[in-house]
Amino acid sequence: MNRFIILLAALSLQAVAIGTATAQQIAVQLSTRETYVDSAITLTLQAAVDDEYELPATPVIDGCQIRRDGAPRTIRQTTNLNGRVTRMNIVSITYTITPEREGTFELPPLEMKVGGKTLRTEAQRFVASKSETGDLLFVEVEGGASQVYVGQALVQTLKIWIKPYIDRENNIKLDAGNMWNTVSQQTNWGSFGDRMQELDSNGQRPGGREVLRTDDDGNERAYYLYEIDTTLYPRRPGKIDAGDLRVVVNYPTEIGRARDPFDSMFRGGPFGGSRLSQLMDEDGFASPFRNRLAVTAVRPISAQASVDETTILPIPTEGRPEGYRGAVGSYRILTEAGPKSVNAGDPIELRIGIFGDGPMELVQSPPLAQLTSLTDGFKVADDSPGGFVHDDSKVFLTTVRPRNESITEIPAIPFSFFHPQTKSYKTVYSEPIPITVAKGEVLAFDQIVSNHQAAEDGDPSNVVLQPNFDNSDSASVLESQRFDTPASGWLALIVVPALVWLVTFLAVRTSVFRTAWASLRSCILSERTRCQSDLERAQSLADIETALVRFIANGLERKQLRGMQSAIGALRLAGFRELALAFETEWNACTRRHSGIAEHVDLSSSRQRLFHLVDRLDSGLRRNRKSDVRPALSTSRKPADKSTNPAPAQGLLVLLALGLQSIAPETLHAESTTPQHSHSIALTGEQQQVILDEATQTYRQAMAVIETDRAEANELLSTAMAKYQLLIDAGVHSAQLFQNQGNACFQSGRLGAAIANYQNGLALNPLDRQLKTNLDAVMAVVESKRSGESEMPLEKRANVLDVVSYFNQALLAATGRTVMLGLLALSSLLFWALLFVWIFRPTFPVRILAIGPFILLAVSAISLWLASETKHTNFQAVLVSKQVVLHSGDGQEFDRVAEIASADGVQVNILEQRSGWLQIETAQNQQGWIPREDAIQFWQ
Questions:
Q1: Contact 312, 368 (CB under 8 A)
Q2: What is the DSSP string of 350-414?
Q3: Span 861-892, pLDDT tens digits
Q4: Same fold for the domain at 2-129 and the one at 323-438?
Q5: 415 pLDDT higher than 70
Q6: Which CATH architecture is the domain 877-937 placed in?
Q7: Which DSSP string do the residues of 10-33 spell out, in sequence order?
Q8: What pLDDT is attached to residue 459?
Q9: Can you name the CATH fold of 2-129?
Q10: What parts of the sequence cross the membrane (predicted)?
Q11: Per-domain residue ranges for the chain?
């Protein structure tokens, strides 16, 4: 091959020397011009090319298989002739040619386009002769039945006899392992292909043993016999034979000494590939001292397997059972189920095991959805369950749901199969499984006192509503609302004027206070200055973290920031994404630089960058305060007074500004607290109404059958919940819609999801008494489940606070919170203005004039306080899994610190959030990490 490349290069250089710099050369070479049938030879094409060329088409020769071996190889060559540098690329393409019959063959000219020109090779001829097998190789297939049915097991045994090669000169006889390695890769294993691939993947080979066999001349000779068993499962009617099974052996003809112990003449050569090279390492051939003997010549021999044809019969249709799914053989069925004690409509996992002698991977599950004995009492999935094969069995897993509490057992499951020996169908049954089904733990309509009855009862102790689970489909459900959470800013209308009045009183009446006040103001530091001072004194990473977290928490008015990661997350939520990234980068750098150092580390390299980040954040916070009016700040903080000598006129102006600003806090609050849940689904008003109608209609259908068919009701409720959720995801946020969704969740037994939806509805309308009543009903169910009580209180008697709160809500519903806030602002302004006058004129009749404003101030303040006490929850999330495990860290690999049984509906607080995990705290002060999908967060 190297000579061929050198010759081609020399031709190219010669062309360059005579001035034809653009001339192209091409040549082909056969590894040999004489070979055997089924013995591959190599064709090599090489061409000197430019940068642009096209590969030739693979040649076609009748009676030969030709394939290209891998991608072309490129050799780059540079020559210098009389100072003239020439660069040349030589492309080498290799083809494998395998003759399939004897005869003389001609390789047609190959054409290759290079640089816009077509290069053409010369035709090549070679001859293939047939290597006579003689008595060296015999192949038979035994065990084939004359006829079998589709899917019936057909066991066959492939027997291969190979005569051992004996070298008389070196007194060497190849053993069974060496002779098996002579089997060529050109062998076509036919129906035994899968079995041979399995043996090869496991690093195994058929076991060979020496036996005597009569040859064609009637003489007994020694042979190595290799037996390969396989089991076939015909999938279609017709004929099956071994006509495609042909064994090719590279039979040794000479053994000699190898030139090198690492000789690779048989690796990739035309005589058997890498298998033949293994002969060097077989026991009984190579000596412990490596005598370097090797097979130096072989000839291919082949044999066609002889076997009788087998007829594949179709499965008869006469007498076929309705539930037959194609199983052929002999089978039995077993079933298991769990849990065996459930509520109506709850899922039960049903495990079905099929055991038999047929092709288990082809066995299908019994048609459960078509078994009336099962579907009469259970809700069954329409699709067939998937299964997995284990040895001689196949296991199917599915879920069934009992329709009502009258179900006492899972009935026997039939399995039908065709028995080929008896040529008839047979059906076997599993044993029934006893179960206990209780009634679903939800409120039935006949247990609920209607709202009209409660309203008509004049007894004040009966003002508390009863649960109502009627879903509405009116257009008002689709009217989105803003958060209407009772604002606490109204307290500023009382506290701030009182403080201003007190300061004014002391300033006017006490000179010592004026001096102390001036000194105190001079000592007051800004949050930025305090943070930078703490950073300057920091001695450890913990000190730096404390200073930064406190500064960010105070700047963002967030009290529940625990750690630097939580503070960075708060910055992102507040819109400071760039600063959050800068803080996170610098903090990670600090952590890496000082990892493992506990105390007194050199933090000077980090302080200056942190000072700069603190300054940037302080500037951003001040800009936001100037550009964004926030009620919480405007009603709870008094603007700084630059004068050191307060005057009555200034105090009155401050009080007047506070009063006017507080008249409409409800509007400002609503604008800043719209639910911030992104949605990507765009629905028109008509589409929303259609979905709402469908959801409500499905919900009512579920409620109509919930007592008699709980499984069907659960499926309908799931459909209704999906449609309600579609509206929520489309941006429809109303208290009524969340009540509809909460009702559906409650009736389906998803208590945690019901609580989340009721809480979100109350976040939009905290004065909705029906929402609060339904929420109390769900919480009663949760408490009864956790305490083990069998009954839950459906009614409760109202105390004095409930009665007062009831009438106050009615008052606010009639007048509106805006009117009540205006009344509070005006009465506070008038009351404290009269007291201000009294400071400068002690003789002023303040007691008489201030009685009226004081009464109005007290009434409006008490009304707003009662409204604020209707806060629906002190928690931030609710658990939605039946059982929750708390981990010490954010991953399943961390230790378990606690376990919450009957967790569905338990409300918790969220301490920290990480990717896919939440750190929670329960009412019992249990802390730990749970997967995010185990909880739903409330809108706050």
A1: no
A2: EEEEEEESS-GGG-----GGG-HHHHTTEEE-SSPPPEEEETTEEEEEEEEEESSTT--EEPPPE
A3: 887 777 666 555 678 899 999 889 999 998 88
A4: yes
A5: yes
A6: Roll (2.30)
A7: HHHHHHHHTT-TT---EEEEES-S
A8: 47
A9: Immunoglobulin-like (2.60.40)
A10: 489-508, 819-840, 846-867
A11: 2-129, 137-310, 323-438, 445-484+673-868, 523-648, 877-937
